[in-house]
Amino acid sequence: MNYYSPLDDMVATAKNLPENENIKLFLRHSIRYDNPPDGDYSKLLLTPEGIELANKIGASIDKKIGLLGASKVERCQQTIREIYKGIQPQFKPEKMPQIIVKKGFYQLAGNPFGRVNGGLDWFEYFHCLQTGDTKSTKGISLEMEAKPVLDAIFDINSDADKLDIICSHDSHVIILASALFDLKTGLQGDNWCRYTEGLFFWGKRDDFYAVWRGQKGHFKNFYC
Predict the structure, then answer these.
(1) Which of 3, 12, 16, 219 is 20 to 30 A distant from 43 in Cα terms?
(2) What single-letter DSSP state applies at residue 46?
(3) What is the rounded distance in angstroms from the CA atom of residue 168 to the CA atom of residue 212?
(4) Residue 204: how many CB atoms within 10 A of its CB?
(5) Residue 43, pLDDT score
(6) 8 A C-beta contact, residue 201 and residue 173
(7) Contact between residue 37 and residue 87 where contact means Cβ atoms under 8 Å apart
(8) Rounded CA separation 31/172 (Å)
(9) Contacts with 57 (C-beta within 8 Å, 6 or more apart), sequence order
(10) Which of 106, 93, 28, 105 is nearest to 67 (CA)?
(11) What is the DSSP letter of 205?
């Protein structure tokens, strides 16, 4: 499958995906505006550069589109719409499929929204998940965060030869990369998820393959 990304490993991975499988792309939204002065990230939309990037990703895709999923947050749905807008007509239905919204694409079990809000600071929370520090996360484990995301991803299924696209947040991509590929980001957010970065999946919920930053894994009964 042809696929444009500013990240070379995603381009290379796409070229080597199996042709007759239902592929699921789970990615972070495109480039958004900077942090809001009032702290409400839900209002932040894509910048013109972010829209252009999403359009460019769509224009590169040469696999038929199946289902679309996203977080309820507008910038994620906006990313899906702009990717879809760029896709060539022969690879997509004339009418855009309804975007499927699932809690697994936006909810978190724990609280990474700062100590002033009764939780942990953002990067600290994910570091504690990755190191198994459930005391600091108030009993929340990496499995508790990752399982609902995986369940939601594999709840979206189209035909075997189609591409399903799901747009979520850096938090959810980091959770999956940590659970599946032992990603470590430390207290400063090292190796953090970039805009439009994500994972490719194929297979079934209890027996699937995933690729992240060029690493391929085969997972059976993972958090099932």
Answers:
(1) 3
(2) B
(3) 15
(4) 10
(5) 82
(6) no
(7) no
(8) 16
(9) 3, 4, 5, 30, 83, 86, 196
(10) 93
(11) T
| 32 DSSP assignment | B
On whether the CB atoms of residues 44 and 195 are closer than 8 A, the answer is no
Decide: pTM greater than 0.90: yes
Q: What distance in Å separates the CA atoms of residue 195 and residue 22, rounded to the nearest whole number?
A: 24
Residue with tokens 């060539």: 88
Cα–Cα distance between 209 and 198 in angstroms, integer? 14
Packing angle, helices 170-181 and 122-131, rounded to 10:
20
CA distances (Å), origin 211, targets 12, 39, 51, 129, 217:
11, 33, 25, 21, 6
User: What does the pLDDT read at residue 82?
Assistant: 98
Task: Output the pLDDT for position 44.
Answer: 87
Place of tokens 């929204």: 113
**Widest Cα–Cα separation across the chain:** 52
State CA 138 to chain mean position distance.
Answer: 25
Beta bridge partners of 25: 165, 200
C-alpha–C-alpha distance, residues 153 and 27, integer Å: 11
So what's the pLDDT on residue 35?
Answer: 77
pLDDT tens-digit map of 96-113: 999 999 999 999 999 999
Task: State which H helix or E strand residue 217 sits in.
Answer: strand 215-220
Instruction: Measure the CA–CA gap between 121 and 157, rounded to whole angstroms.
Output: 35
What are the φ and ψ backbone dihedral angles of 9, each rounded to 5 degrees? -65, -30
Q: How far is residue 46's CA from residue 7's CA, in Å, rounded to a whole number?
A: 19
How many residues comprise the chain? Answer: 224
